[in-house]
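Reply to dn_fold:

You asked what the input looked like. This is it:
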Amino acid sequence: MNAKEVSIALTGKDKKEKERMLCLLFSMFEAYNSNIENSAEIVQALIDYSIEEKDVDFICQAQDALDMAFCNPTMTKDRVKQLNFDIIADNLSLSINNDILARFIDILSFSHDTKYADCILQYMDNEDNSIRQSVNTAILEMQLQSSLTNL
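and this is what came back:
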């Protein structure tokens, strides 16, 4: 499987094909498969899709697959650095609901890049507890990674 196949399946009109692809990606990453050579490209396709999709159920499934992907051993620090997280940062304010916003903040934290701190911190005083919790976790992740890098 390659990123182009993933993108074609996810951007097509066939909802069953989207569902099948999202389940397949979730399962592939959940299995801690260490033989996914093009994991960064597939994850980027998932990130792009999760921003473009309008159906809440499909967005949530894509976010679930992304959560699994970032736990997968193939997503090394170098591969994570290849990803374009800017698309998430640029579209946070357009999130359909609070749950999706909180999950996008979580996903953005996987970048461990402090350049996203200001973008994330704007949600610190949000009335939704899950969003505030995601902000706190994301900032802690970034601080931890930054301090480890400076050792």
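The chain is about 70% helix and 0% strand.
Hope that clears it up.
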